[in-house]
Task: structure prediction
Amino acid sequence: MERTSGFRRLKCVVYERTHRMASTREEIQSELEDQVAQLSKQVAALTKTMSKRSADVLADGRESASELYGELHDRFYEALPGIRKQARVAQKTAQDNPVAAALVGVAVFGLLAALLVRR
Result:
């Protein structure tokens, strides 16, 4: 008896599912159109969200670059007197020892040429 009632339940479940799937072609097409419309709305929402996030990231990047430029400018401006002083010392040394300055210049030129040839 138990076996028969289990079979009847299974038969009812199969009948319900088959009946649900036996929708008309128009109903299936309508459901698909609704799903496509929902997906289109979701894609539009995701596109809008990504666009906003991209704009925010770009703004943050610009701000960071601006801060970095400002910091580098300040450091360079602070270091400029020392650089000028070292340049004057190097110029005076080169004037006092022209042969040594020429040798250093040739050595630096040679190193740069070697680095460029390797690439």
